[in-house]
Amino acid sequence: MPVRPLNVGVIVKLEPDFSEGNVSYNPDGTLNRAETKNILGPHSAAATLAAFYCKVKYDARVAIGTMGPPIANQALKQAQIISNADELHLYSDRIFAGADTLATAEVLRLGVSRMNNGLGADIVISGHRASDGETGQTGPQTAWKLGYPFIGNVIDFQIDQENRSIHAKRFILLYGFYDVIEEIQAPLPVFISADPSYKPSFDTVSERLSLARNLNEARSKAENFEKYLQVYNSEALGADPRFVGLPGSPTIVYKVEKIPKAKAKRRVEFIDGNDTAQLDMAAEKLLQLMTEAPIK
Amino acid sequence: MEKYDVAVVGGGTSGLTALRQLSNLGKQAVLLEAGSTTGTKNVSGGILYSKKPKNGRVYNIEDVFGREFIDEAPYERAITQYILHATSRDKLYSIDLTPVHEYQINYAYSVLLSRFVPWLAKEASDMSEKMGGGVISGVHVRSIRWETGSNDTVIETDELEPFRVRAVIAADGTNSELADVTKARNKFSSEQLYQGVKVVIKLPETILEDRFNITSEEGAAHLFAGDVTMNHIGGGFLYTNRDTISLGAVYHMDSMMENPVEPSRLIDALIRNQFVAEFIKDRVPTRKANQALISKDEEIRQHFMAVKLLKAWNNLRSDYYSRDGIKRLIESGKFKTKEEIEGRINNLEKELVEKYNCEFGDNYVELEYSARLIPDGKRCRMKTPYYKNVLFVGDAAGRGVFIGPRIEGLNVGIDDAVRAANAVARSLDRNNFDEQYLGSFYTKSVEESPYTRDMKEIDKEYLKIFLDCSKHIPKDIVGSRYGMIFKLMSSSTLRGIAVGFANMLGFDRLLPMVESVDTYVNVPIEIAERLGRHVDSNYIPNTPSLQERIAKLDYDDDSVPHIQVTKPRSEFMQKMVSLCPTRCYSSENGDVILQHEGCIECGTCAYETLWRHPRGVKGVSYKYG
Description:
CATH class of chain A: Alpha Beta
CATH architecture of chain A: 3-Layer(aba) Sandwich
Helix content of chain A: 25-40%
Structural class of chain A: alpha/beta
Radius of gyration of chain A: 25 Å
Shape of chain A: elongated
Largest interface: A-B, 11 and 18 residues
CATH architecture of the domain at 2-75 and 111-185 and 382-456 in chain B: 3-Layer(bba) Sandwich
Number of helices of chain A: 8
Distance between the termini of chain A: 78 Å
CATH class of the domain at 2-75 and 111-185 and 382-456 in chain B: Alpha Beta
Oligomer: heterodimer
Strand content of chain A: 15-25%
Shape of chain B: globular
Order of helices and strands of chain A: EEEHEHEHHEHEEEEHEHH
Strand content of chain B: 15-25%
CATH topology of the domain at 2-75 and 111-185 and 382-456 in chain B: FAD/NAD(P)-binding domain
Structural class of chain B: alpha+beta
Number of strands of chain B: 28
Helix content of chain B: 40-55%
Largest sheet of chain B: 10 strands, mixed
Largest sheet of chain A: 9 strands, mixed
Number of helices of chain B: 24
Strand order of the largest sheet of chain A: 9-8-7-10-6-1-4-5-11
């Protein structure tokens, strides 16, 4: 009996690139999101890799979804290069703005149900957390809303397609104690979050052949990723306005810590360029500084 | 355990040809390549021939890869000039061997394998995927075994789970581990090998064409014999690529063992030959240390600025001296005319000289240093190139045609690969992998190859063309040593008898007489001294030290050494201290010690060591090859 093809859904997030030189701040010390370069978040990338593993190993169909403004399609493109995804979903609507993790989970729940030509997903994969939110709630909440069992911090997994179950290894850090690898078996459909350390390994010839084929396919697909992109607004998702965006967000932010800025070490003195006395003084000072400067 | 029809071990030109040919025949095959990607471990002197012998047929690369090969493959240049130079100090005598080079060829292309092989890999794997196979890189085949009661062969690698195949094509090069593991042949000894070292030198496209007097459709090959070999049996070669030059030296390994000299010094000697120096000369900037007292910050600023300008100068100049480059620059709208680009280059030079202590002068630009072993087909071709259901091809089978100025390796491997693929396909069709059906059939096919004939006997016609080319050399120079032979060979009526007699003697007995210091060194020196013209170069090339050469190479170090020294005090190992091209060996209290980090996997030391290739992805990766 032929096994049912495996459908995989991934939820990802477009995040600010916190690497050197890519971050831009507003004058009040908050993050300038418009100016900061955005990338597929590193945790989302780990989730995408887990989907690629399913693609290579189980020939799964992969759909990737993200909630965000239209520029978030860049994250989807990056995710497609990594995973050779067959479907890219962008859930984008003004009324989704201001959503907390719960309201986001609602949109993602609706999105997942529309993945893979409406078949949904046997496995939904998320990252461990977002590097700009750090709550790690969106994944588990989406799982709860979908009614799927949730397995967090997954470092390795196998799917039994015949018995429709997953066998996953999860990494548990017990502070002050020792680290544990927990093995869990669960029925499909299931929701897993990939541990940040997740790295797939392909160690048979067939997997390597499939890997090479998929990498080639991914490159050519991503060249016109728009062909695979589906944009859903609130109406298309059938979202209830009470549960999405700001109205759907019970979280109350009572205080935001500003990102501390490094103190400048230089001192500035302004001089009037038309005032010769001030110019003389400046020249004298420069000369003095230059003669005193140590030669390193 | 997974099962496939065929495993091809090694993703060089032969391995990929075998894969493609099997796919053409509708067979499933998996190719395993140890390098991180195909082409990173390949080195070649660099001419790929396509031939049309009068008697018998050979399989050429376009027979397997189709006409697309000629239109699309990233080869460098069609070699249309072939000149042999006898050298002695500043004297040089040139013999035009183009007719010899053109003997029975369709074409000959210069190639840089790190650019060329990936194209073959793509073509081969696209086809192979349709048959359920493909190319897997980063996998090192460790061993091979036969399960009792089964004809299947189990392939064991360092990276993947073992898998079964029905036949194996071993294209794993001169230092074939499969040959070693199966004991299909002994390791090649120094009498059977050549050691080759090569540098790739940058020279902008149109400068190169002007210098060698060739068009964009042409290329030149120059061979060198005489004092450049520092008294070793061997010679130098210079091949023009698109915008680089392959300059190398190839020596009989036993001659090197007798009189060990560091390979990098041999290549330096070739580079410093005045004639070669003029060929590779380019305008090269050097930056002097700033003498003025400036702060560290200023020094760093100047350094970065100078580097930025040098890069701009270099890129612009490379484009300026390339047809496509000029077109690109003008089409991009950045420049309107050629003169404008030239003006910009001059301005950059001026700025670099005036502000950043740069000087522009004559020198040469070395891009990559490499080395490899070449099996001398006349002495070491496997008489039965198989073991059970493993067929050896190309270098792994010790096959190549190296006779005087005839230097052919790549095309011989390609011919073998097609024959091996055909034999395997035939076995798959009949499900018969018996030695009589597969191995013997392949051996017979290889024996029928005109290349094999050329490894066994002198080709009368080839010899005639060669003698015609060198007819201006006074008979007494050669005659004093080989008077009788030369007279016989030069006479058109007696040549037939002489060659017949020589072939009766066989290459085995003939070669030690012909391949001697006299032929390779003394005769060329005498010719150059007596007939040569004076050549002069206005500069002395500044050759990089070996450390600098190694530093330019890319390595992914394997913490586990892939070589084990077993006889630290043997005479052979003592010689490795000099003969290792990257000086991996040193001598301490009489023991030879290995530091494998700089190893470029040439295999020079393989004869008396436990020698393996590094694990998948690990080791050196060539950018030009």
